[in-house]
Amino acid sequence: MKVELDNVKPMEIEARSFEIITQELGDTPLIPGTEPVVKRCIHTSADFDYARNLCFSENVIDKALDALRGGACIVTDTQMAKAGINKKALARFGGEVYCFMSDEDVAEAARKSGSTRACASMDKAAAMDKQLIFAVGNAPTALVRLYELIRENKISPALIIGVPVGFVNVVQSKELIMETEVPYIVARGRKGGSNIAACICNALLYMLDNRRD
Amino acid sequence: MKVELDNVKPMEIEARSFEIITQELGDTPLIPGTEPVVKRCIHTSADFDYARNLCFSENVIDKALDALRGGACIVTDTQMAKAGINKKALARFGGEVYCFMSDEDVAEAARKSGSTRACASMDKAAAMDKQLIFAVGNAPTALVRLYELIRENKISPALIIGVPVGFVNVVQSKELIMETEVPYIVARGRKGGSNIAACICNALLYMLDNRRD
Asked: Structure pTM?
């Protein structure tokens, strides 16, 4: 095979990628306003399944942008998702990213309760006095715990990004979140991941850049 | 919808996930010895495409395990991939993970040359006097630069994990790596990502755990 590279300047690679994605999506129906999120998930995974598995609660994009603009903080369930979020873009509005998964008190709480660290780290987040966006790309137990905390009126998240990936209780945990009144962006089914969780946060942050309203 | 959770203990979730993956793979032909890598990529993405897009150079698994056992270090092209690699498992053999993408000298070198930071960070890695595994999950320009450095006899990597994701020069950059004599694990086509790069490193590390030879 003769390999020929396309001549695209470094600064233009992302824009060109989004053009290709838009072109290949063709007439695929997307909910107006959600396109930047859907396209960035495809950009991050090269997986067009995200054009049909992403579910959005009513007006979730506006609500999410309002929360970010107001300085909401993001809680992730992996260090990897935390690493992937554009923290500079978030900091401009006063927000920070937290991941409690490696915290000793979280490990201890999980050991004591026989639960997961993801679950315990949601409890730790619930005790914070901040407006929070949860970006869950790995642990369905984190989503199940958020569901319980919402039902018990112990938290009221500004947004839940529910995109854990996998094979055990992943599908169900996402359905639970979609039963709540909390604003959500969920990748229905098995797919998702820390990369998807991070890129949805970034898509929202970059929408604020473009709007600057 | 009535949501019912499967009763699987936290410690058993990963094993159960791998059982489901094995079951659903059925008779899909996999290269003997590569199964743990293929299955972990599916575990990380819930995307069974990895059962057919992963390409392995001859005896690459044995070569990779030898390198890790000998204390090889891993260079990534994103902080996210670095965050996802099990650094404790790597440290047992003396290895470390490096990502130079945020380094000021790398940013400066990229500015000067009109190239990408990924490219400049490969140059920085090439100047290290260590046995290196490159885990590239994001930037095709990193793979293209590695190809050039190999051709110029400036590096001789122990392994290249070539799994950038995307739409511009991604496919081609992977084909270039497969033209070299360097041991490789490549996800042919557009798919891949920092999560895939990290999970391939972890799959290899966990194979060492199970073998302990």
From this structure: 0.95
